[in-house]
Structures
1.
Amino acid sequence: MKMVSALLLLSALLGTPAVPSWRPSCYKRALKDHDCHNIPDGTEDLRQIDDGLQDHFWEGKGCEVICYCNWNELLCCPKDIFFGPKISFVIPCNSQ
């Protein structure tokens, strides 16, 4: 009980929340038998964002998660985390 009280007091003094945030975070996905240059169209549920943004893909049906391909793995993040809230709204969304 003393430990919990000490942690709450310490977190209040440092200005950080005592409970971790449930904000969506980034994650990595391995590309099985593929690399960034041979992802077949319509597979892995990925769509290239734009010709000007090589190796950047939308994941899923919407335009909320962006993946960056680095050789044979994807780093996927919510668009606001990946580009920041001031830039993410100008990235073209092709949800088809």
2.
Amino acid sequence: MKMVSALLLLSTLLGTPAVPSRRPSCYKRALKDHDCHNIPEGMENLRQIDDGLQDHFWEGKGCEVICYCNLNELLCCPKDIFFGSKISFVIPCNSQ
């Protein structure tokens, strides 16, 4: 019990959380020999969001993860992280 109390006190003093964050994070995916205008066939789980948002794609069947294509890589993030919670709900979702 003393050990647990000491660890909690130490983590509070150091400013680091005692439990790792469960918040989903962003990640990158390389397109290898392709670019944003010719995304390979193996990435059919990407759907363009809207003609007005060039190089932005929904990933997967739902509308929770957005990918932005930059040169030859995709940066994918949960929509609330990517656009912010005040904007993400107005982005059109084409889940078909």
3.
Amino acid sequence: MPALIITTNASFTDEVLKQLLPQLSKNVAEALGKPEHYMCVGVNKATMIFGGSDEPCAFTTLSSIGSINRKSNEKVSAIVCDLLQKYLKVSPSRTYIQFTDSPPENFGHNSSTF
């Protein structure tokens, strides 16, 4: 695992997601030192406001078994913010990222847990 889930009010097309998702998957896995074949990335559209404004914004969660620390979090934050700005026009100043380091027994996969 890691799992990166982005919730945003920004408009996007399927074509944009086809470009964005592989870049998030590859670059975030690399920043965490994790194999990309475990990386899960999703984008959800929602009605949201940030700071009282409905301008494009995003709330992102990254869960991982290990590799959640200051150094990797800073790398991931830069990657996510850069790509959200490039593809979804969401300013880094309107993006929150929540990092969660999860114990392996709390993540299920392939009919078991890690």
4.
Amino acid sequence: ARLRVCADGGANRVFDGMPDLLPGEDPDEVRVRYKPDAIEGDMDSVRPEVKEYYSSLGTQIIDDSPDQDTTDLNKCISFITRNPPGPDNS
């Protein structure tokens, strides 16, 4: 994917689950390889250590907690619409 966006709780799933899918590889290397470009949502579900980990890798954290009228999925779709992936993103 040229643009990887997670809803806030989805970031936990990527952090925990990706290393399990590649058991022969170093978990930290897997997490770096599959890091999201952005985590979007109201930040009620992402664990603080996961948020800090990805933030330290340059993942954009978008706290959209004032907007409680749309789901985190809708917020992610809106983010992608506003930031379409370009050919230079990997």
